[in-house]
Structures are given as structure tokens and as C-alpha cells.
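Dear support,

I submitted the protein below through the web form. The confirmation email said the job was done, but the results page showed an empty box. After a refresh the structure appeared. I'm attaching both so you can tell me whether what I see now is the final result or a partial one.
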Amino acid sequence: MLTTAVLGTGLLGLDLIERIQNSPHLTCGLVVGRTPGSRGLAQAAELGCATATGGMDTLLDAGHFDVVFDATSAFNHQEHAKKLADTGAVLVDLTPTSAGALIVPTVNGHQAAAHQHIGLVSCGGQASIPILHALAQRYRPSYVEMVATAATASVGRASRLNLDEYVSTTQAAIGQFTGAERAKAILNISAARPAPPFRIAMTAVVADGVAQGPVGALVEAAETAVQAVIPGYRVTSCTVIGTTVRVIVEVTATRRRIPVHAGNLEVISAAAIHAAEQHAAATSGFKELSR
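What the results page shows now:
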């Protein structure tokens, strides 16, 4: 059993807490918020967690934690990483930085246990890379594009401040995982009512010889693998026109504390717990990961 701490008390932090409590391999030791008396901090306490304010310094004073989940902002993450570097804690970064080893559960999730500092790319990266990586294993792409659309209600203040980091980190990660010569990432924030589900539109330009049947099989296999981690993940369209492959994915949240349209939060939260449980597997030897 690994003892964890959560930095951040937004919807993402609260979902992490519930996931930790539902895991037979993790326990929540502390939740650290920024504002005394905040709603998120009160909800964390209602869930039975010890809570505190004061940020990273408070967490360090509280003792040792095996895993620290950083659900704050990209601007704060670098400082958090420096302060935790000598503690031996595994740092799982839910912000859009590229500081840690980038992990996507169904692509290279088994590598998480080898790293003390883990990055999760972004919600768009987590939702698109499994599909794009699967395509790239058979059809090396020259160009890859990912356009993510998230409901405005699911994009918090920290995420809005981190838009540049989101785009640059996602773009670089897509290039890294696909080997594409050029990669592009775009994030749209939609104020539509009712709030739309998290949607990812992917385009890959590949070499000659691509066909609908083999592409569909690759995409379906990647979708099935992701659904084992994120049940609300669905491919809604997959088409091949010439040498261009287009795939659209929608992610609906299935968790109690996350609105159904906020699939962008669920993909990151699920990936974070998966990474932590890989470390638990390495230290205790259990074989079956909880979701």
C-alpha cells in the first residue's frame, strides 16, 4: 500500500481522492489546497482525508509520501518537482508540462514504475496518442494533427492560464509517440449549451497503401484497450480518404464527481492512478491493477 498526497482541490483533485480510496493499493495521506475554507478542501475533508493549506512547504513538513499527485498548474509544477526531488517520492504531474517521463497507459504505461517523475502530457494527448500511436506502428505519418474541444465548464482557471504549455507539450508528445515529421495540437474551449462532451478530432497523413479495413481494425483495437482504463472513451468516426486518415473520439465522464461532459478531466485522472498503481505493482508484486 502506497501513501499518497494530492496537491489541488478542484474537480480533478477530488476525483483523484475517490480513485485513491477505491484502490486496494493506494491510500490518501493528505490533501493540500491553496485557500483556507475553500469548497474543495471542505469536500476533501468530508471524504475522510486529512487536509491542509500552504502548498508544497506544508506537504514537506507533513512527512514522507510515496506518491504525490500534482493537480495544480504548470507554472507551479517546476518548483514542486525541485522540492520533492530529494524526498524519494514519485511525482505524478497532471499539469501540461513536459518535465517528467511522459506516460500514456495503453502505450507505455508499463514504463511508469521506472520513473520517479511522471508526466501525463495533457487530456488531449491522453485521448489521442493511443489511436495515433497505433496508426504510426503500421503507417508512418508525415503529418499528424489533433484538435481537442472541451466544454468551458470543464476547463478551470489554471488550465486556461496553461494553454500555451498545453499546446506545446501535446504537440511535442504526439511527435514523440508517432515519429511524425510534423505535429500540430489545437485546443478549443466551447461555451455551447448543453455542454458538449470532450471531443478529439485527429488527422494523419501517411504513406501510400493505407486502406479502410486495416485502419479500422487498428483503431478499434486501440479503442478497446483505452476503454479498459476510461470506460467513456468512444470512437465515433474513422475514415480513410487517399493517404489521409481521420478519426474522431468522444469521451464522456463516468465518475460521480465529474460532470458527464468533462471527459477531459477523467482521462487525466485515470492515467494518474494507473501510473501510481504501476509503482505499487513494482514494490509489492501484485499483478491485477484496479481501475
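Response: this is the final, complete result; the empty box was a page-load delay. The domain at 123-262 is CATH 3.30.360.10 (Dihydrodipicolinate Reductase; domain 2).
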